[in-house]
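Field reference: sequence -> structure
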Amino acid sequence: MTRLNNAALSGLSAGVARPGYDRSQVKTGVVHLGIGAFHRAHQAVVFDDALASGDLRWGVLGASLRSPGVRDQLNPQDGLYTLVVRDGAEEHLRVIGAGRGVLVGPEDPAALVAAMADADVHIVTLTVTEKGYRLDPATGDLLLDDPDVAADLAEITAPRTAPGFIVAALQARKAAGLKPFTVISCDNIPHNGKRIRAGVVAMARNLDPLLADWIEAEGAFPQTMIDRIVPATTPDDVARLTARLGVEDQGMVKAEPFTQWVIEDWFAGERPDFAAFGVQLTDAVEPWEDAKLRLLNGSHSAIAYLGALSGHEHVHEAVVVPAFRTFVEALWDAAQTTLSPPPGLDVAAYRDELMARFSNSALMHRTRQIAMDGSQKLPQRLLAGAAERLESGQDIEAMALGVAAWMRWQEGVTESGEAVLVDDPLASRTAELIAASENDEAEVRALLTLSAVFPTTLANDRRFVDAVTGAFLSLREHGAVEAARRVTE
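Structure field:
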């Protein structure tokens, strides 16, 4: 089967949107580290919009910092791929042309550094997940004893980490008399701009204090909030799209209609007219970030664990269950009390929209996909709000059930007895703690000792311990559906 590529564009049906600009004239203005489905369904679409407007400076060079998988999907397709937007029975296809190819960092780190140091590059975006920042979760300091960080500090010309590649490229730009590029984190973590800046500056300071001073003075690391549900692509998705296109697209991505990108208005140099393409520029990202993390992401994680434990493969199947749907509303009620909504955000309307998004059956968003890396997600999604409610003397029953469901998921078995993969950076440690626990109460206490997840003040708060323990026992005795129902009685 012929692959999607430049030559195949003219043969696509009229119902498929495709690039209307001359791709041969596009410059590489953006390098994206950690290229994956989310970037291709979110940020790359905005840069494609910029190209479609006639501003051809914003082509995107992708970079994988681990495997060649995405390179092998996209490079044979001239960087092209299809964005499939699904909403109920409706499906809209758009071929995205912003991609300028994909480099694989470990194969040729010098090539990636050179690409990032090119004068045409004004923005470096990244989606490497929180663990890719190589920061201590408790202190926020650069993990100097991390083997890859140590290797970068020993030989920065052949970096292995995201901070290392950024530092190496900035060092090259400084030597060439160029301005820094703007670094835009698109990871779904709080204070993402501050975190990547901390890692980059710390690494630079260990190498060259003058370089670090230059980055601090001239660089820009804006905070961002990003939102779009992007389920994992399946072989069935590829086969279905192939039948419709008449060519094979191994790089396709699928997403919901909703998309949002909020960026702090802080740039080191040139940028697209973001506002013209639906991006919100603001002086304060945090209120937007908190609303998303505690309303959307907190409930997404909780329903993922509860749904997966009770045998619901997809989010839309879980929220159809009355007990789960009522639980999500209760969780939102609790989380809403911890927010200071930004101007322009109607929280009631936002909640209605979230439920409609969760209920979109066309997305087939797997609960087990959302359940991945939970130890890195809990602190900002559920624990921060729980701590604030306890401080003000409010109950945390709904939040506690979400935390307990994560603990129960760490056991690696569903309520029906099916063994499941616990895909989490702390999976081996949680397995050890669970195996050494003599009963359920001991298991909860053991997991609460994970300082990378639970702040000491929270883990030692009797109200929190009791609430999580009670929720865990309810899950064990009654199962996820009944436990959720009891929380909302």
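Note: The radius of gyration is 23 Å.
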